[in-house]
């Protein structure tokens, strides 16, 4: 098996199409198909399901992909090390982010980083906490922003404390500067899936808030829009509310709570030079804000 074989398999798995993978790799569809077939013949098992609707990973393929990613990442690390040794600062960093980091911080980070390190390419993947964790564990990305509570067993460097706020329809609360647990108990909630707001779910559980909700959404904008229209209240990190255009009221929760945002990587002691450069840049960046 060659690195090209691994790259073909990864690209087809990511894209779900032999033809599209061929376009990306600059190969013919028949060459891509032959490469995958040769891989399967050498392995002794099928790695892809072929159908008219597209291509998907078999169970064996799903287990193989993280190892293929590790090989390709190691090859990238080797090339970066050689370039660094020869005095060249170049390479690629694959980074995962969740929504509020993507909109609030990422543009400035990418812009300022590129001015200092023009030879390093950054590839960005946006998703939920669960997506970021999956991508990190399976070698799809090198670095990922996560909340500390969502990281679990993934090594993470804490960076930023993001307070939790209670969001209410405008004019709902008549007095007080905070929103207490007892006050929250009297309201219907608009909630999100646990993969989207693990820290909020933890806050609810820790304070024995058995919330009643008929609205289970994923998108932050949709959640707050429902609150604005009077369908309930919700909890949101302060950073999220920076992106919200709707007319609602926000109050710090009591007891005070926050999510801790950090930068995570599976191997903090073994990173490719470009990845290490970005990792250190992000840590220094948050020391300044």
Automatic annotation (TrEMBL):
<dbReference type="InterPro" id="IPR005119">
    <property type="entry name" value="LysR_subst-bd"/>
</dbReference>
<protein>
    <submittedName>
        <fullName>LysR family transcriptional regulator</fullName>
    </submittedName>
</protein>
<dbReference type="Pfam" id="PF00126">
    <property type="entry name" value="HTH_1"/>
</dbReference>
<keyword id="KW-0805">Transcription regulation</keyword>
<dbReference type="InterPro" id="IPR036388">
    <property type="entry name" value="WH-like_DNA-bd_sf"/>
</dbReference>
<dbReference type="Pfam" id="PF03466">
    <property type="entry name" value="LysR_substrate"/>
</dbReference>
<dbReference type="GO" id="GO:0003700">
    <property type="term" value="F:DNA-binding transcription factor activity"/>
</dbReference>
<keyword id="KW-0238">DNA-binding</keyword>
<dbReference type="InterPro" id="IPR036390">
    <property type="entry name" value="WH_DNA-bd_sf"/>
</dbReference>
<keyword id="KW-0804">Transcription</keyword>
<dbReference type="GO" id="GO:0003677">
    <property type="term" value="F:DNA binding"/>
</dbReference>
<comment type="similarity">
    <text>Belongs to the LysR transcriptional regulatory family.</text>
</comment>
<dbReference type="GO" id="GO:0005829">
    <property type="term" value="C:cytosol"/>
</dbReference>
<feature type="domain" description="HTH lysR-type">
    <location>
        <begin position="1"/>
        <end position="58"/>
    </location>
</feature>
<dbReference type="InterPro" id="IPR050950">
    <property type="entry name" value="HTH-type_LysR_regulators"/>
</dbReference>
<dbReference type="InterPro" id="IPR000847">
    <property type="entry name" value="LysR_HTH_N"/>
</dbReference>
